[in-house]
Amino acid sequence: MADINITRNHTLGKEEAKKRANDMLEKMKDKVGIKGAWAGDIFNVTDPVKGTFAVSDTSIKCELNLSFLMKAMKGTIEQKINESLDKALA
Predict the structure, then answer these.
(1) Which letter does DSSP use for residue 1 in this model?
(2) I need a labelling partner for 70 at 20 to 30 A (CA). Which of 4, 31, 37, 62 fits?
(3) What is the pLDDT of residues 48-86, one digit of tens each?
(4) Smallest Cα–Cα separation from 77: which of 14, 39, 21, 34?
(5) What CATH architecture is 4-89?
(6) Which residues pair with 5 in a beta bridge?
(7) DSSP-assigned states of every residue in 32-67
(8) Collapsing DSSP states into helix, strand and coil, what is residue 9?
């Protein structure tokens, strides 16, 4: 089970939601150094945490596994992801 599991529903359609998710992830790359790549509608996060951002017609689902040291920052990471998703899907 993922350490962070966030699902955010939307009414944007898959393509628009993916575009906005990509914009959000690009900002996260600049701010926190997140690394990964898209495989279809799933962004596979490889560093500094492991997990996915999966885009569907009606939702974006974030599942992340944190390293032992990152688990101490779980609340902050979760808050930042929620804020970023809220902005991206507004």
Answers:
(1) -
(2) 37
(3) 999 999 999 999 999 999 999 999 999 999 999 999 999
(4) 34
(5) 2-Layer Sandwich (3.30)
(6) 63
(7) H--EEEEETTEEEEEESSEEEEEE-SSEEEEEEE--
(8) strand
Long-range contacts, stretch 21-28, CB < 8 angstroms, 24+ apart? 21/53, 21/55, 21/60, 21/88, 23/88, 24/84, 24/85, 24/87, 24/88, 25/53, 27/84, 28/84
Name the phi and psi angles at 82, rounded to 5: -60, -45
Enter the tokens of residue 72.
Answer: 């101490």
| 78 touches 3 (CB < 8 A) | no
Q: How many angstroms separate the CA atoms of 82 and 56, rounded?
A: 17
Tokens of 76: 């902050």
- 34-45 pLDDT, tens digit per residue, is 999 999 999 999
Task: Give the single-character DSSP code of 3.
Answer: S
